[in-house]
Amino acid sequence: MEEREGELRWDGLCSRDAATRAAALDTIGQAVLRRSETIAPVAAMPPTRAADGLLVPAARDGLSEVLARLLMLSKRCPFPDVREKSEAILSEVQELGIRIPRPLGHGPSRFIPEKETIQVGNEDAVMHTLFADSFAALGRLDNVTLVMVFHPQYLESFLKTQHYLLQMDGPLPLHYRHYIGIMAAARHQCSYLVNLHVNDFLHVGGDPKWLNGLENAPQKLQNLGELNKMLAHRPWLITKEHIEQLLKTEENSWSLAELIHAVVLLTHYHSLASFTFGCGISPEIDCEGGHTFRPPSVSNYCICDITNGYHGVEEIQASPVATIPSTESLCEVEALMEKMKQLQECRDEEEASQEEMATRFEREKRESMFVCSSEDEESAPARDVSRHFEDTSYGYKDFSRHGMHVPTFRVQDYSWEDHGYSLVNRLYPDVGQLLDEKFHIAYNLTYNTMAMHKDVDTSMLRRAIWNYIHCMFGIRYDDYDYGEINQLLDRSFKVYIKTVVCTPEKTTKRMYDSFWRQFEHSEKVHVNLLLVEARMQAELLYALRAITRYMT
């Protein structure tokens, strides 16, 4: 076995057989220690001074990536033997005089305190199975999974679908799938997903030159750029002519099956970027921004603080003092439940006419244009990912700005259940079924709770959230009274929804904190699952309708 990072074999760690994992760990440990011993004398010499004035070891020579991966395994592997052995290897390396990395940040989400998330090693049997499945498929237990596991039923469906799209038999080669994931995530500057898929793209044999920019990828993938940007920002503009251009381009043409696969991947990663920003997902421990080789700074406090057990500003920020619920925010929950009750009574008493229902939809669609974030604070730091897509100025635009009118998309004319599902299943078998299951789980998921209240029917609220997102995309359900949306979703919630769905890269912790202040974090994650699936379905409806029109 070669000792360089790119050639170390990590796949044995994904095995469910303890003996296989132990053998792989021994081999990795021996390789890492041999490599460390060759540079340990260098590390022990007087260190050089880096440009930023901090002391760093004089040579690492490719070892850093291996150590970062071991750090990730010591914290995030669902198998205790791998966690313990990875930690032991790191300790041995440290004893040789080589600085080892430490994690940055606190837990899988910047928005949710680490103590309120599921800790790896403390999960129940159902969650452990999900973690083991995820680790076996991906070779990691990522932060998205650690936040989604608040809702195990949904997570299982999500992982099954994602695994099928990326790794099972399908029209597109594996490296194309990961590259399309990079293209899609980059539209929202989602460096978290871009970093993950750059690693996966290289792992399955992708050409590193493609990562220098979209213009270095094959023309066939470059041709997908236009559809990518419209799906991400203005899906209502997609026409059958756009589909025709992709299918009829001489030597670089897409087949219908390939195009369906690509469309599902693009919509999956656009919506997953929404989840990533909407839940404040932290960088993976072994990725850029997830670890550091610098020792903890002691510049902010004196040595007596250390001896007294005070560990600095970071720790205070990570463990905020629990606040007593304000009367105002407690009333917020009661008021929302009262509105739900009143709306149900109104439904039972009288039903609005079709004309009135149409008017209320148009009013809500128009009003949704004026819901925008007033946040000026910086969103999560991200490395420049614009090289993975073209036309960086192209972003979300509301429908009727600049006099442009977009016709309402009536679900009664083209729906997922009656049209989209069968088209996807016909051209990419089983995927229609997987997506349908995932949509239904997200839409119907309920624990019959609202904040501290139990035995609550939340279907009215879930439907309002789903239909508000589709309304922002111009999609109308004839049988829904859009007057309910204004009753149930307050302004701060609408700002959060619109930001996460349309411009996720602008989501801030303040927005996350400002809606539903007395609800559990698991409930806010549940909201994000609705946003993810409603957005994905909206994008799919526009793309699939255009493909259907091309075919007929």
From TrEMBL:
Keyword Flavoprotein belongs to the record: no
InterPro entries named among the record's database cross-references: AhpD-like, Sestrin
Biological process annotations from GO: cellular response to L-leucine; cellular response to leucine starvation; negative regulation of TORC1 signaling; positive regulation of macroautophagy; regulation of response to reactive oxygen species
MF terms in GO: L-leucine binding; oxidoreductase activity, acting on peroxide as acceptor
Residue ranges of coiled coil: none
Gene3D superfamilies: AhpD-like
Top-level taxon of the source organism: Eukaryota
Localization: Cytoplasm
Catalytic activities: a hydroperoxide + L-cysteinyl-[protein] = S-hydroxy-L-cysteinyl-[protein] + an alcohol
Pfam families xref list: PA26
Keywords (A to Z) from UniProt: Cytoplasm, Oxidoreductase
GO cellular component, one term: nucleus
Main location per the UniProt record: cytoplasm
Family of this protein: Belongs to the sestrin family.
UniProt-recorded name of the protein: SESN1 protein
Organism: Indicator maculatus
